[in-house]
Specification:
With 205 residues, the protein is α/β, with parallel strands linked by helices. It folds into 2 domains: 2-124, Response regulator (Rossmann fold), CATH 3.40.50; 145-199, Winged helix-like DNA-binding domain superfamily/Winged helix DNA-binding domain (Arc Repressor Mutant, subunit A), CATH 1.10.10. The chain contains 7 helices and 6 strands. Strands 2-1-3-4-5-6 form a 6-stranded parallel beta sheet. Helix 4 (145-155) packs across helix 7.
Length: 205
Amino acid sequence: MIPVAVIAQAPAVRAGLRVLLASDPALSIVGDAAGPGDLRHPPLSAASVAVIHGALGPAPLVLPDPLRGVLFLVDDWTNLSLPLPVSHAWAVLPSDAGSDELTAAVNALFHGLITIHPDIATQLLQAPAPSRTSRAEPLVEPLTSRELEVLQLIGQGLANKMIAERLHISEHTVKFHVSAIYAKLGVASRTEAVRAGARRGLIVL
């Protein structure tokens, strides 16, 4: 069973989400609340995945470490940009997503995968403004073999926790490699790192 917490300001929205998520017998709703701060307290602290309606903003979202992923449900994604303000595996779906989409996203998050609705992906992954890596100038310092492995897994959409499991290293070590990759490629997000790596032929998408 995958324990799930539901976060939404409106009680009616919370009730509706609980019904939709209950359609998958593999999911167990541990509770619901009006704000993400309750994820740090029982019974919501037992959740592996949080489903959050309308809480995606520019400020960092502080989430408890045991949480494996968060699904954001948004009404308007025209101003969204990467990186999202969350350190866990994440997914973004329209707020009117159906039960099949919701449950599929929750299952993907539980396994450390990032999920984006096609319509939202078009907005999030649109070409960025030209940067200092746009001409693929030579790197001052090449990526190590381990950094190349991490970059390839980032390109596959894996979150840090999943990369750590795949490479049999700690999540702290993964974060260290990600920071080094950003510095060497001159980027500030996972998406920019993947684009820069692909442009230089460092990874295959």
